Automatic annotation (TrEMBL):
Record-given protein name: 8-oxo-dGTP diphosphatase
EC number: 3.6.1.55
Lineage: Bacteria, Pseudomonadati, Pseudomonadota, Betaproteobacteria, Nitrosomonadales
PANTHER family: 8-OXO-DGTP DIPHOSPHATASE (PTHR47707), NUDIX HYDROLASE FAMILY PROTEIN (PTHR47707:SF1)
Gene3D superfamilies, sorted: Aldolase class I, Nucleoside Triphosphate Pyrophosphohydrolase
């Protein structure tokens, strides 16, 4: 959304309060407020001189009577309503003290990102709910290195353990072998409700009934608009690529390499500090990639990532 230079942007914090079962809290705006009757994530305006975390703690105490104990930064998006332009700083809140009750006459409802049962939802929150449907782990295949049978066994095991999104990335595999392998992965994944993306080939993605396509950074920079391709992800390595992916409004990006990797031994690694700086206030879900394992997920999310992508750690 294009915002004029003269537009006054109101800074707002919003909490994705997530229970252990994955459901999150929505609140219905009471009468007397703009967009009364609409459902939204709890939160409110940041006061002058107030940090984002302090504002979030204060708002949650005022609205819900809860003491926030842990929150991770997530996405930041700008949205223009009829009455204001707001910059929404979303945080995922996973630990708190005290019960939740409506202190401002709002209604509360726990919702699943895959089955929203209340309406209407504030327009700014539609892409947020869509992003919440993305799992925290994004696996990348390596059947060429492992062998197809071993790779399929590993994928089946990971699906049984909860893996829900896979990228098929086999650049050295013949077209015929890739079609057979992809068909097997997609069949197994869909049996568990998991999504499969094809690396770099939108035509092949449609032919195989995959759920979307994952673009390389060079393919990303050649795009002038978002393809109609189901899920669309892309690999990014710098600010320019991140900016272009956001302009295209892709579903997510993968930022790499966080650490040195066997597949790209000569590529300079970002490290966690630069990774966090690159995605600060970013508008799309970000997966960290490069030398990571499952135990790195908490660190990645504390720094603002949606999750982690792995080739060898699944």
């Amino acid at each position: 959304m294009v915002i004029s230079d003269s537009a006054v942007i109101v800074e707002v914090v919003a909490a994705i309060i997530i229970r252990s079962d994955g459901r999150f809290l929505l609140a219905r705006r009471p009468e007397g407020k703009p967009y009364s009757g609409y459902w939204e994530f709890p939160g409110g305006k940041v006061e002058a001189g107030e940090s984002l975390l302090h504002a979030l703690k204060r708002e949650l105490q005022e609205e819900l009577g809860m003491q926030m104990l842990h929150a991770d930064p997530w996405m930041t998006r700008i949205f223009t309503y009829t009455h204001a332009t707001v910059r929404l700083h979303f945080f995922r809140v996973t630990d708190w003290h005290g019960g939740l009750w409506a202190r401002e006459n709002q209604r509360l409802s726990w919702q699943s990102p895959h089955d929203i049962e209340v309406e209407p939802v504030l327009p700014a929150n539609a892409p947020i709910i869509q992003a919440l449907q993305l799992p925290s782990i994004y696996a990348i295949t390596q059947a060429t290195a492992l062998g197809i049978d071993a790779a399929l066994t590993r994928i089946e095991d990971a699906l049984q353990r909860g893996l829900r999104m896979i990228q098929i990335r086999e650049k050295e595999m013949s077209r015929e072998a890739l079609r057979t392998f992809s068909g097997e992965v997609i069949k197994r994944a869909h049996a568990y409700g998991a999504k499969v993306l094809i690396n770099g080939d939108g035509v092949f993605s449609r032919e195989t009934d995959a759920d979307g396509v994952h673009f390389s950074s060079s393919q990303l920079m050649a795009l002038s608009c978002r393809p109609e391709q189901g899920l669309c992800g892309a690999s990014c390595h710098n600010t320019e690529e991140l900016h272009h992916a956001a302009q295209l409004n892709l579903d997510f990006i993968v930022l790499s390499p966080v650490f040195p990797t066997l597949s790209h031994p000569g590529s300079p690694a970002l490290g966690w500090q630069k990774f966090a700086a690159l995605i600060r206030d970013y508008s799309l879900p970000v997966y960290a990639l490069g030398g990571l394992r499952q135990e790195d997920l908490a660190t990645a999310q504390e720094l603002g990532a949606h999750g982690i992508a792995m080739m060898r750690g699944t």
